[in-house]
Specification:
The chain contains 12 helices and 8 strands. The protein has 324 residues and is of the alpha/beta class.
């Protein structure tokens, strides 16, 4: 059974039918570098925030919620009205550094930002990106970090969306096809049992290596069976056409929707001026609308995996609080 606050926040982040159709624009260093490559000069902070604001303003209406970073995404979007009061927002808690190999990426938090502040700002969820393999030397330390966030999210009554990304624990070789699948499924089993609220997961197969959709379906069924909490599919930088098909199969297998970023807006980072505005006005919302339709048709209501909170007439007397 979940708490009343978490249950309410999950509803704020989903459609009335209980599906996640969440726009992700919490990318930082890697997105800024991409924008700089296609700009006449490196972007200022204001220009970087303006790009995120434009994406949120144009695509947000087709979404149930938006995942954005505090400095360049959420602050401007809320202050300037690009994020509707009818939409939930999720916020990352971690620093990302793609200059460091995956096996060396520990858990580092955004300075001056916390679970408490996400809650106080009106957030509907806390997100952590975690590079994780159960056989890696740092696995125990990372599990402990996840456990601390689970405790913080329980304290502040806000859902925890965990995004574990698999990597090879041996830097000298890549994971095999079967090893990757096993690790993605293992992560779903391990972290959903640990007490996260929603799993934001990558597709369990490298579809470039495995084109057989029958194998995709089997892997997705295995993932769904392993995951005790609602789960949503991330796009992991694949092209839109590939992600649309992945999303359709994932939702049919039991996913509660998608949390999607570059698959819907990546081309905008290579455009400017009228071309960018036109892409974000037309193609971006069309893609989000199509993903919403897929979720509406195939996805599993997250409430099927989350027991509703108790609601006897005096529930509030035992409800946790601070200072009273």
């Amino acid at each position: 059974m979940t708490s009343l606050g978490k249950y309410r926040h999950l509803a704020q982040a989903s459609t009335p039918a209980g599906h996640f159709v969440i726009l992700a624009i919490d990318h930082r260093g890697n997105l800024r570098a991409s924008l700089d490559r296609h700009a006449p000069a490196p972007l200022t902070d204001a220009e970087f925030a303006a790009f995120k604001l434009e994406v949120i303003a144009q695509l947000g209406a087709a979404c149930s919620a938006v995942l954005a970073d505090p400095g360049f995404g959420l602050g401007p979007a809320i202050a300037r009205g690009a994020l509707s009061g009818q939409q939930g927002f999720l916020a990352p808690i971690e620093i990302t550094n793609y200059d460091v190999p995956p096996d060396q990426r520990g858990v580092a938090f955004i300075p001056g930002w916390s679970v408490e502040k996400i809650k106080r700002a009106g957030g509907a969820g806390v997100k952590l990106l975690l590079f994780y393999h159960p056989a890696a030397p740092d696995a125990a330390a990372k599990r402990e970090a996840v456990s601390r966030i689970i405790e913080d999210c329980a304290r502040w009554d806000i859902p925890f969306f965990l995004e574990p990304i698999v990597f090879s624990p041996d830097p000298a070789r890549a994971l095999t096809h079967d090893e990757r699948r096993a690790a993605v499924v293992s992560n779903a089993r391990e972290f959903s049992a640990l007490g996260i609220d929603v799993l934001k997961t990558e597709f369990p197969l490298d579809v470039k290596q495995e084109p057989d959709e029958a194998v995709w379906r089997a892997a997705l069924d295995e993932l769904n069976a392993a995951c005790a909490v609602p789960w949503a599919l991330l796009s992991a930088g694949v092209d839109y056409a590939t992600f649309e098909r992945q999303a359709e199969l994932a939702c049919a297998a039991g996913a509660s929707g998608v949390i999607v970023g570059r698959a819907v807006w990546a081309e905008a980072a290579t455009l400017s001026g009228v071309a960018r505005a036109e892409f974000l006005r037309t193609t971006g919302p069309q893609r989000m609308t199509r993903l919403a339709e897929i979720a509406a048709r195939h996805a599993t209501d997250w409430r099927r995996k989350v027991a509703p909170p108790a609601h006897d007439p005096r529930w509030y007397e035992a409800y946790p609080g601070f200072g009273g």
